[in-house]
Amino acid sequence: MGEDPDAGPLSVGAYARLVDSELTEEDLRLPLRFLELGVDVHRELIERRAWISAAGFGRLRDGPESFGAEARFDLSSRGWVPGAALSGRVVFQPGASDAVGGRASASAFWSIPLGELTLSPWAGFTYLAVDESLRGLSGADKDIFTPYADEHRTQASLGARLRHRPFVDALVTAGTSLRLSPVPSTLDRVDATLDLDLLPGRGLWPWIQLGWLASYRPENETRDEAFLRNAFTAGLTFWSWLSRGHRVSLGAEGTFLFDIPSPAQTSPRLSALLFARYDFTAGRGLRDFPPHATPFRDRQEEGSGMIERERPAVEPSWEDP
């Protein structure tokens, strides 16, 4: 019997993440140490236009374990029609008082070509559901309670990103944004970011990610003293297609974070993350993953055994690069 030439209906995956990190979101020191195990599914709804995904996961730590589920919808921009992203997450942590928390986010953006550059203005809103019964618990899940989340349950952000692809295997992204939280009266932060993604070579050459974040946190009703946070991040991702539709990925990420002024009890800090992932894409390549997850899609699909589909005539659009 010959192999079925038809691509499958969706992509499924499983992953493990070992986190020894700190949240850059938090003003004060908040160490995170846990092992997260999860499964997820991904599906392209409209060709190169809309995607949906869902996941379930568990987190193991020294304190009580936690369990959660999340879902996300992505829509790419086209012409004057904006793109959008909708996401939600719910996490449950059993214990003396069973705790539930989560978040819901919505954002919209445009991708506007400016010669060799792409400008993406965007706006977003996030609501955090916090369970105060975990206040003071060292093993509280970050999606259920943190001191910052407790005081900033509503967040509105406005920003812009500028992308440039100097080479086919390089992508440079610069961005700036501001956040109001609690909404609508308090300026929580002004951020600037610079990111470089590289995917040189062939075979087992890794995807290299370098990033810098400068986040100015002004004095306000929830913060007694202003400071500037700097975070430098470097990451490597290795992957291989073992056979048609079967992909294995391994990666690591490290972050060095310091504040100015720099209180001894909170800065500087080092964070690390290790992960392993398996995906079965059933001959679909990476079509079930949105553009922000596949910036080098042609290269990332090499060896996937993807079953090509007939492509329509290309129309002018403002798609993400």
Describe the fold and architecture.
By secondary structure, the chain is mostly beta strands. It has a domain at 11-38 and 110-300: Outer membrane phospholipase (ompla), Chain C (Beta Barrel), CATH 2.40.230. It is built from two helices and 15 strands. It has a 14-stranded antiparallel barrel with strand order 1-2-3-4-5-6-8-9-10-11-12-13-14-15. β10 (170-180) and β11 (187-198) form a beta hairpin. The protein starts with 10 loop residues before the first strand and ends in a 21-residue tail after the last helix. Residues 289-313 have a biased composition (Basic and acidic residues). Residues 289-321 are annotated as: Disordered.
Briefly say what this structure is.
The protein contains two helices and 15 strands. It is mainly β and 321 residues long.
Give the strand tally: 15
The share of residues in helices is under 10%
Shape: globular
- Mean pLDDT comes to 90
Distance between the termini: 41 Å
| Residue fraction in strands | over 45%
Question: What kind of sheet is the major sheet?
Answer: 14 strands, antiparallel, barrel
Order of helices and strands: EEEEEEEEHEEEEEEEH
CATH topology of the domain at 11-38 and 110-300: Outer membrane phospholipase (ompla), Chain C
Structural class: mainly beta
Q: Which blocks of ≥5 consecutive residues have pLDDT under 50?
A: 1-5, 312-321
CATH class of the domain at 11-38 and 110-300: Mainly Beta
| CATH architectural designation of the domain at 11-38 and 110-300 | Beta Barrel
